[in-house]
Write a structure and sequence with these properties.
By secondary structure, the protein is α/β, with parallel strands linked by helices. The protein has a single domain, classed as Aldolase class I (TIM Barrel). Helices cover about 40% and strands about 15% of the residues. Strand 9, helix 10 and strand 10 form a beta-alpha-beta unit. The N and C termini lie far apart (about 65 Å). Bound molecules: erythose-4-phosphate and phosphoenolpyruvate.
Amino acid sequence: MTASLDHHSRADAARLDDQRTVSISPLVAPSVVRTEFAPDDVASATVRTGRGAAVDVLNGTDDRLLVVVGPCSVHDPVAAMDYARRLAAKADEVRDDLLVVMRVYFEKPRTTLGWKGLLNDPHLDGTFDINTGLRIGRKLLLDIAGLGLPTACEFLDPIIPQYIADLTTYGAIGARTAASQVHRQLSSALSMPVGIKNGTDGDVQVAVDGTRAAAASHVFPGTDLDGQAALIRTTGNPDCHVILRGGTDGPNYDAGTVADTNARLAKAGLPERVVIDASHGNSRKDHNKQVDVVTDVAARIEGGEEGIVGLMLESFLEAGRQNLTLGHSDELEYGKSITDACIDWATTEAQLDRLAAAVVNRRAR
Ligand SMILES: O=C[C@H](O)[C@H](O)COP(=O)(O)O
Ligand SMILES: C=C(OP(=O)(O)O)C(=O)O
């Protein structure tokens, strides 16, 4: 546009623009980061096999439960790998009954303000070294895939998937972006199953609508692997589904809401299946209440309730949460969340055992 403007118009346009932009600097291209951290055969097989298994569980051709479990956010790659090694061993132990996928969440959608995740501020000090964050994040996904453990990410910024989506087995669209057309279009392009959360106010229809929109084909502006602006044309994603996460009015993991959600999905011509998030509005952000959710849902599953295909848990090495003071990450307690409170490792193992037993008991019915 600017090239066709005369000298006066260009000067005028410059005065109209960049009134609040402090600086614009280069972002490393996705292809560069992908080349630096390329998947080997083991990592590729983890993602390919994990995605296929997740689709089978969602479609009911695999009778296991999908369990997406891990920290609310990753802030320390060393602790994340420590957790991943334990989870990989546990996942192997329960593999006949559960498909375990580790939450490796790098992007945090904030209610107002706060640390926005490892990709945005990897040094936890407000320096926003995103070029390093993208490399740290991708390397972590690669290292976890190398353990044979599939990973899940929330996708928030529409540019980010080009850097990490190829290593991701399960994607999520959060409660704050479920209504966003940008995120629905993005979901329609993603090569993995994507769970779309109900709204923070508890509105389930927004997630049903999002699932329907993401199943359709779209054409939208995005970026290609070289970081160039590009037009993206998609097929639509048939593996999207609703995640019930509760809301400001309280929990929504009850059988009535599950049945109502599945009825809404059927009415929209979509598969009747939901994932239940034991945390967030369903635990009223009290990590201990996640155990109540698992206990209740496990009993219902083994009792024959249909339509629940998976659960999501927020879990880390240590229980609870701690506050981050930017620039003082050396003061943080190892293995404890700096965003939402999590259940600890021992409690996590017990919940996985309980869910595995529910699947065994359901089979025995
Ligand atoms: O899952 C994480 C949080 O619930 C979400 O990012 C919102 O966090 P906030 O309300 O602390 O900003
Ligand atoms: C931000 C998250 O959840 P929600 O969108 O449900 O608040 C999350 O799962 O990390």
